[in-house]
Amino acid sequence: MVMVPVQTLLASSRAFPKALCIPGCLDAFPERVELDPLPTWQQVGKNLTLRCLVDGGTPRHQLSVMLLREEEVLYRQPVDVDPKNPKEITATVLVSRDDHEANFSCRTELDLRPQGLALFTNVSMTRQLRAFDLPVTIPKLDTSDLLEVGTKQKVLCSLEGLFPASEAQISLELGGYTLTSKSTNHRDLVSAMALVEVTAELEGTQQLLCVLKLADQTLRAERILSIYSFPAPALTQSQPNVSEGSQVTVSCEARGGAQVVNLTSVPSIQPRPPSPKVQHTLTARARDNKRRFSCSAALNVAGQVLFKTRTLELQVLYGPYLDESDCPTNWPWEVGTQQTLKCEARGNPPPTLNCSRKGDGAPLPIGVVKPVTWAMNGTYVCHAESSHGNVTRDVFLMVYTETNLTLIIILVTMLAIVLIITAAMYFYNRQRKIKIYKLQRAQEEAMKLKAQAPPP
Questions:
Q1: pLDDT in tens, 161-183
Q2: Where are the transmembrane segments (predicted)?
Q3: Terminus of the chain with fewer CB atoms < 10 Å: N or C?
Q4: What is the third-level CATH fold of 3-132?
Q5: In three state form, how does the secondary structure of 211-280 look?
Q6: From CA 168, how far away is CA 133, in angstroms rounded?
Q7: Which CATH superfamily is domain 140-228 in?
Q8: What letter does residue 201 receive in the DSSP assignment?
Q9: Beta carbons within 8 Å of 422's beta carbon, 6+ residues apart
Q10: Residue 337, Cβ density class (10 Å: 0-12 exposed, 13-18 middle, ≥19 buried)
Q11: CATH number corresponding to 319-400
């Protein structure tokens, strides 16, 4: 089959006058072949009507019209009406995503082969279709319903199932102001993310709005956010420096309409009903140093109860302490071994501590590993001192060998036995003397009674 475009034929009509010299030869070809403009956007799944207008062309019974998608023939129809009246050919197409950016056109074919000529074609100007698809759902907003002043909050809006995602425009608004957001798209998903700096000007109820535009469609999603201010409770003590024996008051005060719901410590303190301010007074003791107090405040925001907690560690100033647990009295060390004197004074501020031997003042380092020698034997005085007082404690360091220790144990055991025997003999003799004394007293009483009796 030979197909000759009409434009080619018209350009060459003078070269082939006999071939074209049929009745109305130059008017035989359609004067106009035009495809109506397509909609700016056409939704996927909806019908698209294609309209082609053909004006002129004879003989009509040898003229046909085709509607094309690219080179695919969608519809074909002969033209058999009066050539003086334009002919409109329509076809309906169900639009799919594959039709996006596809080219549509209208083509006429004038078959003059029965007259010994060729098949002549004429094509309209192509029209490009832009197709779009939207899900039935609205965009999804991801963020907290409660935003605190002074914080930064991420806000995300996304929609899945739309096409083409690259053509979608998405924006975020808070309180009527457009947020600076970053938009991304991947396949059929589009999203926008913004980092909101929550300021005091936004405090109250605000509308968060996500607007998505694609083609001639606009989708909206909104959330009502509660923006609040909730400073942590103020937890203070009545005086910065608390000395042992003095009174101190620990105060917890809530702000911004909140209530103090708990003031706790170990050891526990008596609970109080919620109020804007709670206090606890105590007489400071050494054991209260580093005692932790915890204060919890509650705020009701849009039906949700929020909590904030603050802690305080009490610092009590007290003089040095040196007791048996801090610095044991007896230290038996074997000669030749490596030993360390473990002696620690308690106090706030931390006291200085040193130990020296009675008599010659020889120092004994604390916390230092030393080889034990006979020369270290003796009684040491450990002295702890701070700005809040001082205290001393005697420490007995006894240096021994294994043989020496055995002898000491034997002597101590023998001494204990002698002491036990001596004590037993003492108690035995004492009881015996008491019995003799009581017997003598009884005899004397009997003789007195006998002497006082009248003669028979």
A1: 999 999 999 999 999 999 999 99
A2: 405-428
A3: C
A4: Immunoglobulin-like (2.60.40)
A5: EEEECCEEEEEEEEEEEECCCCCEEEECCCCEECCCEEEEEEECCCCCEEEEEEECCCCCCCCCECEEEE
A6: 11
A7: Immunoglobulins (2.60.40.10)
A8: G
A9: none
A10: exposed
A11: 2.60.40.10
